[in-house]
Amino acid sequence: MKKLFLLFFLVLGFNMSGQTYDIVIAYERQPTDDKRNEYFSNFPTFSQELLGWGLNGHGARQIKIKKSDNSNDYHIDDNLGYYFRNINGPQLTYINFIGVPAESSFIDYFIDVAINNAYGQTLYSIDNGEQNIEFDDLINPGKNHQLITTYMGNFYVQNFKPNVSLFLPPNRDPAGGTKTICANEQFGVFAYPKGFPVEIYNWQYSLDNKSTWRNVPEQFHVSNPDFKISDILGSNHLDYIGKTIYFRMGYNSMVFAGGKEFPLIYSACAPIVNKLEYKLPPLCYGDNIRDITVTFDRKLKTGEELRFFQLKAVNPLTNLPDSTPPIPYPFFSEGDPRNGLVTSFEEKSTGVYTYSLLNFRGLNPGATYQIRYQAFENNAGKGFSFSPQKDNIKYKEPDPVYFDISQAENPVCANQTVEVIIDVEGGTGSYKFFVDGVEQTDPEPEKEADGYFHLRGLNPEADNYIKVIDSNNCIEKSN
Questions:
Q1: Burial, 90: exposed, middle or buried (Cβ in 10 Å; 0-12, 13-18, 19+)?
Q2: What would the 3-class secondary structure string for 91-139 be?
Q3: pLDDT tens column, 280-339
Q4: Cβ(31)–Cβ(149) under 8 Å?
Q5: 466-469 vs 254-255, strand pairing mode
Q6: Beta strands, E only, 234-286
Q7: Nearby residues of 304 by Cβ (< 8 Å), 6 or more positions away
Q8: Region of residue 137 (phi > 0: left; psi between -120 and 50: alpha; otherwise: beta)
């Protein structure tokens, strides 16, 4: 927060008023055949016809053309604010409107066209503003985008520029600084002055070295956007760790703030996982993963910590997260070394630092997971990182031990023992059988020709408690 406050304070020193646009209107004295024929059938011709036109704004407020903004063009009358031109013959004229006041909410402008005699008196008004210049026409200029067709010819927006500038703090300025933004770090750049319509503050970013540009979400169309890279890229923002993301203001066909672009290197700002080892999977169905060992590329700095370890399911082909909620590292009491807060690593060999994650559970069999974690420095969130795709964990746990008991036959004589049949499946390795807590080893039950295990010699008068375990001591109990 202190960092953002400082940047905001610096911006206040700039001029925050006087929101204006510069607009260039092109006039092409080449009416279509239909319009030419329509004109001659409706209006008489005069040997001294002149064309007068201007840009009208809100409430019929006229935006006057000035000689000083158009290289002192003598066709312009500063008093009337109109451009006078003979209509005979083809022409292509560009008229500059400099410093057009910006409205609080953008309104349409329209071309006002009239026929005048040699004394500047209006003879016929041939356009009453029905063909407006919409805002989209301003920010997407050019003849092929929007033509206003009149009897005199065609008008279109040749150029449009909001008089807005960018303030880049030192670590965002391409001329110097680190040009790095950490995962989980707030965006800190400002456009000034404030007060333009929101369409002007259209921030764009490029992920492919400026080949294509994309708009940030609409909620960030403000002069000082406050967002993180994850806010614009979504859940796959970590795929761009280590890559350069470019930013600018404007649209594909028109850039603002002088076309200034600034690159940001998206960084984890955290120790990077070099290796992930799935050392000790669970022994039994539903148990915790016993050990995942993480090896990092560097030692933690003074005041640096890693927190919030989690296993996140990803698509094994794209390595993008799926919709499965992440599995957080179990949180224990403060001070417990298992609480997921890493303040130091164990050095296995020179330059290799490892940390073991224990007791993860709740994973989906067959799913692929990566380790994710967040970096803090002096208790401030600094970055976010994840393990490499080559070390993703494909989770598999043992099948649960299931068994079912049935009695072979009822005893027909007094003191006759009972035989039971046990159907067992799942688990790992061989099975052991217990009756009332005593392992049955003489004889040791084996799967017989019928595919079942048989326990013989049981007391028919007793409630025999039978337990079956696998080679990992995984258990299911039955009475």
A1: exposed
A2: CEEEEEEEEEECCCCCCCEEEEEEEECCCCCEEEEEECCCCEECHHHHH
A3: 888 888 888 888 888 888 888 888 888 888 888 888 887 777 777 777 776 544 444 445
A4: yes
A5: unpaired
A6: 244-251, 254-255, 262-267, 273-280
A7: 375, 376, 377, 382
A8: alpha
Tokens found for residue 354:
């490892």
Per-residue pLDDT of 250-278, as tens digits, reads 998 889 999 988 899 998 888 888 888 88
Query: Which 3 state secondary structure label does DSSP give 439?
Result: strand
How far apart are alpha carbons 347 and 295 in whole angstroms? 9
The predicted model scores a pTM of 0.63
Cα gap 180→242, rounded to integer Å: 10
Nearest to 467 by CA among 409, 424, 417: 424
- Taking alpha carbons only, the member of 174, 181, 164 closest to residue 249 is 164
Instruction: Identify the DSSP state of 342.
Output: B
Does residue 147 contact residue 193 with C-beta atoms inside 8 Å? Answer: no
Going through 143-272 in order, the beta strands assigned E by DSSP cover 148-149, 154-162, 165-167, 180-182, 190-192, 203-206, 214-215, 244-251, 254-255, 262-267
Separation between Cα atoms, residue 444 and residue 434, nearest integer Å:
10
